[in-house]
Design a protein that fits this description.
The chain has 501 residues and is of the alpha/beta class. The chain contains 19 helices and 19 strands. Helix 8 links the parallel strand 2 and strand 3. Helix 7 packs parallel to helix 8 and helix 12 runs parallel beside helix 13. It is globular, with a radius of gyration of 26 Å. About 2% of the residues have low confidence.
Length: 501
């Protein structure tokens, strides 16, 4: 065999060069790595976040430096302060400010002492007028829809009646059976001359097929994808998702709540035989508020202003149900829905009933709940006995012991997965919407809730809550403390990660 001595000499040269330069490169990379960790730590501290969240990030950086850096770049940047989202770009935003200020002044000058249902909620109403310009509407009809079957049946019936426009905004839009049924119906309405617009979240709707979207677009449906995640812009967009679920039909009928467009809201998932959820059908002035939120998000995506009066018709509803539609997210200066939850809990006089699929409250909400229970308020919290996220499930479990110790009744829903996001206070106030009782809904996601000041609606929702408790297991503090050590360890680890879930 012939030997190529020239090749051998080249290999020897590069080997010697690597031996000389290798240690220097290693030292250089180590220094770059150390400087990066220190820089990110300084940035985290300088952002003046909650101590819990700050220490969680620093702990992750110390224990898992490489993973910590990646996680921070993907999930840790605070865009609320950076103001990359803003609804103040809308030319009509000044109108909301003016109207909310007028309502605030009127409420401040009116005596509601004769109205026992409303007098305890004036503080809440004024708060939401200030922190999110959530106008108080009077003439509304509210229909509670339990579970996916009732919701899709009712929604599709209303879509078939559409004459002018259909607006859909969803975190999850799948091209499964229910998605195909919706798509076919929307195409029919486009062919009838109805304007159809859809906003879907790119992360939540990750499994949607490109053929489904292309077919809708070719048939005339206008579609906006909320903040597509594509490298190198991935890091700044994955952490702030549009978690809203809104349907508006002709500006007269609206839907909002916990149900997305997917089959599992009817049939459940693998290992989840039944999916429990709560949604609302709205008619009246409140629909204008849902429309304004959709229009704001559409403007953010398309820079198209939906300001035609036909999108905001005057209502013919005469029934009176006081309510506010509250939007919260990185486009607002305040954590509006979190503040609404806090105010409703701290102003309770007799009872607080909560159903949430993910219970990871911040310190403010946690303290408010425990304080209410310790002061004699009847506090009941319903959480899933099984979950669609194992890590989130264990993080939720980490809060159970201290809630029980404060006298709060905690129940595990056993029939399936309870995805409802509701709160009822004093049989006079209730909230139904998209916001979970967790860090992500409070500070990172775009959310929307309907806050209703009406004893009839609150009583109906309370009835269904108590029915759910019949399918649930109450947790005993003594028995809970005897859980296996491994389960406690898993919950404690998950709790550390809870600000990022």
């Amino acid at each position: 065999m012939d030997v190529n001595y020239q090749d051998i000499n080249m290999l020897t040269y590069f080997e010697n060069l690597l031996n000389q330069v290798g240690p220097s490169l290693s030292i250089l990379f180590n220094w770059i790595y150390i400087i990066t960790v220190i820089a990110i730590t300084i940035i985290i501290v300088s952002q003046n976040r909650s101590p819990h969240k700050t220490m969680s990030w620093i702990l992750i950086l110390m224990l898992f430096p490489i993973i910590g850096i990646i996680f921070y770049l993907f999930l840790g940047q605070n865009h609320r302060k950076q103001k990359i989202f803003s609804r103040k770009g809308l030319v009509d935003f000044a109108k909301f400010e003016e109207l909310s200020e007028q309502q605030y002044i009127h409420l401040s000058q009116t005596d509601y002492s004769h109205n026992r249902y409303l007098k305890d909620r004036i503080k809440m109403i004024k708060l939401l007028l200030q922190n999110s310009k959530a106008l108080l509407s009077r003439f509304n009809e509210v229909h509670i829809l339990n579970n996916g079957h009732d919701t899709f049946k009712t929604m599709f019936e209303e879509i078939r009646k559409a004459k002018h426009h259909i607006h859909l905004e969803y975190y999850i839009l799948y091209s499964d059976k229910i998605g195909q049924e919706l798509g076919k119906l929307l195409i029919e309405k486009v062919n009838e001359g109805v304007k159809v617009r859809i906003i879907y979240d790119h992360v939540g709707s990750w499994d949607i097929t490109s053929n489904y979207i292309s077919k809708l677009k070719k048939q005339g449906v206008e579609i906006g994808c909320f903040m597509p995640v594509r490298f190198p812009f991935f890091t700044g967009k994955i952490n702030y998702r549009n978690h809203r679920k809104i349907t508006v039909i002709d500006g007269k009928v609206g839907f909002v709540g916990g149900i997305n467009i997917a089959d599992h809201y009817i049939h459940g998932k693998k290992k989840i035989p039944f999916w429990r959820d709560t949604h609302l059908k709205l008619e009246g002035e409140s629909v204008n508020a849902l429309q304004a939120i959709f229009a704001t998000d559409w403007y953010f995506l398309k820079k198209e202003l939906l300001d035609d009066p036909l999108y905001f018709p005057k209502t013919t509803v005469t029934k009176q149900v006081l309510m506010q539609i509250v939007a919260s997210g990185p486009d607002s200066d305040w954590a509006s829905i979190m503040q609404a939850y806090f105010t409703s809990i701290t102003s309770a006089n007799s009872n607080i009933f909560i159903s949430t699929p993910y219970l990871m409250p911040n310190e403010s909400i946690l303290t408010a709940l425990k304080t209410a229970a310790l002061s004699g308020i009847d506090v009941k919290i319903l959480i899933p006995g099984i979950s669609d996220s194992r890590l989130v499930y264990y993080a939720t479990l980490s809060f159970v012991k201290e809630l029980l110790a404060a006298g709060i009744e905690v129940y595990f829903y056993r029939k399936g997965f309870n995805h409802s996001k509701i709160i009822m206070v004093d049989n006079a106030f209730c909230s139904i919407g998209t916001a979970n009782m967790d860090y992500r809904s409070f500070s990172q996601n775009f959310e929307v809730n309907a806050l209703i000041y009406d004893p009839e609606i609150a009583s109906e929702l309370t009835y269904w809550f108590l029915e759910d408790l019949k399918e649930s297991e109450i947790i005993n503090l003594h028995e809970w403390r005897k859980r296996p050590i491994l389960d406690k360890f898993k919950a404690n680890i998950a709790r550390i990660a809870s600000p990022f879930l």
